[in-house]
Design brief:
It is globular, with a radius of gyration of 16 Å. With about 180 residues, it is an alpha/beta fold. It has a single domain, classed as 3-Layer(aba) Sandwich (Dihydrofolate Reductase, subunit A), CATH 3.40.430. The strands form two sheets. Strands 5-4-3-6-1-7-10-9 form an eight-stranded mixed β-sheet. Strands 2-8 form a two-stranded antiparallel ribbon. About 20% of the residues lie in helices and about 30% in strands. It has helices at about 35-40, 50-60, 95-105, 115-125, and strands spanning about 5-10, 15, 40-45, 75, 90, 110-115, 130-135, 145, 155-165, 170-175.
């Protein structure tokens, strides 16, 4: 079965974006393990808001949602969107059932790109297998938190920790079931 990997940049105080949706605090001066990560995945799960932000970014950057990102099968989870770009798959009903089915299909691992509501739902359903965080050395003080209230504890096993000269710390955890 394919793994679903939550892979995000996060501030030291736990925010994935600033209070106005900004992510200008994210380092882009080097690879930070993205090339290796891209070699592990062939699909991406993305919520509506993150999809719209990514499409805006892509329109200004030669169609790429992120620097040097390879082509991926995109699954957009939204109850409000009616159409998505050509080749992408819109999932608007039975989203957790559909996510399970996709995980069972052959292929490489799947990147859970965001957003917060989709992450919460997939975490609650126990569908996230791994968490890869790029912890940036900044305190925003406010914004969208990575994790919101959860009813249960989630135990993690550290798989990898890498520190970069810039102060960014890459943490990779497996979720213990």
């Amino acid at each position: 079965m394919r793994k679903l990997i939550l892979g995000l940049a996060v501030t030291l105080d736990g925010f994935i974006e600033g209070p106005n949706g900004e992510y200008d605090w994210c380092f882009t001066d080097q690879d930070y393990g993205l090339s290796e990560f891209y070699s592990r995945i062939d699909a991406i799960f993305i919520g509506r808001k993150s999809y719209e932000i990514a499409q805006q970014y892509a329109s200004e950057n030669n169609g790429q949602m992120a620097p040097d990102m390879p082509p991926l099968q995109e699954y957009i989870f939204s109850k409000t969107l009616e159409t998505v770009k050509k080749g992408a798959v819109l999932i608007s009903e039975n989203s957790m059932t559909e996510a399970r089915k996709i995980k069972e299909e052959p292929g490489k691992d799947i990147w859970l790109y965001g957003g917060a509501a989709l992450t919460d739902a997939l975490m609650h359903e126990g569908l996230v297998d791994e968490i890869w965080l790029s912890v940036h050395p900044i305190l925003l003080g406010a914004g969208t938190p990575l994790f919101r209230h959860q009813d249960t504890r989630t135990k993690l096993e550290l798989l990898e920790c890498k520190t970069y000269e810039t102060g960014l710390v890459s943490l990779r955890y497996q979720i213990k079931q």
